[in-house]
Design goal:
This protein is an alpha/beta fold. The chain has two domains: about 20-145 and about 310-325, 3-Layer(aba) Sandwich (Rossmann fold); about 160-300, Aspartate/ornithine carbamoyltransferase (Rossmann fold, 3-Layer(aba) Sandwich). The chain has twelve helices and nine strands. Strand 5, helix 6 (about 180-190) and strand 6 (about 195) form a beta-alpha-beta unit. Helix 3 (about 100-110) crosses helix 4 and helix 5 (about 145-155) crosses helix 11. The model has no long low-confidence stretch (mean pLDDT about 95).
Amino acid sequence: MKLPSSSATNLKKENMKHMISMKDFTTKEMDDMMELMALLKDARKDNAIPKLFENKSVGMIFEAGSTRTRVSFEVAATLLGGHGLFLSPRDIHLGAKESIDDTARVLSRMCDIVMARTNDPETVDALCKMSTVPVINGLDTRFHPTQMLADLFTIKEHITDGRKLSDLTLAFMGDATDVCRSLLLTCTKYGMNFKQIGPVKYQMEQEWLDLADEYCKETGASYEITDDVEKISECDVVYGDSFYWVTQLDEKEERLNAFMPDYVITEELMSKAKPGAMLLHCLPANDKEEVTREALEGEYSVAFDEAENRLTAQMAILVYFTHKYMETPSEEVKKMHADKVNDFLNKL
């Protein structure tokens, strides 16, 4: 006989949703998240953030390190009145001494939301399968949805001429990374035009282009995968990312030789984009590799606003994915439990 759970987290939530990729959300849902971001960012400016994550915790699994993902989630939880727990491979037994399934089940009993930044997409999928609280993909080798939310919001913030996101064309300079793939799918689903500009060997895989084709039919967006740097003249947003990642250090020289100097974002290259074009970069930036310091510090660069908006995004994510399950006790219930505990303690 299986005994009923005693979990205070209420276990399986009705219609609970995870955040694995922005392709899993409608544009209405993305708009709602960004509206929540705007409200929370305004509240932060006034140092008046409502405690919408009070007495809650986010368990943060990090197989891969990160400055922005860790700091933004930890600070977001604190600002909202909750707590972020950093869990590295040295801290937990994920997939080694303890199965991923069991880790998900245990964290679900103790935390209100789980964020995982992993080197293996199967880890995120396994966590989702067994977790009874929302799982947020902090990055895997497929997707980077929290970055996408910050990117869309940052672009929207800096549009000053009345255009909408769907009026813009974004160019990603470089390799078909998780960020590039996420931008392809997010942009075309949102109705934005997308270009990947980079050497043929490092261009987007066909399976993701097939999915983007479906989105383009629905939204009227378009995409282009090209090695022609001059195509930047058609773009309102230029996006940079590293030409190699920590798992590709053995390919570093080969990759740098393939991308440099043609695909490096320089001041000269930015001058070829549309008037008023903005520069984004998910950071960390490798100066003089995929972007020069002069370009990154240019008046058109919003890369550090984009980095700050990782915090804005994480605040919204923590609230968006837990607000449906928040149960605020009445003052009577609070007093009842306080009285019970105090009565017991007074008898000790």
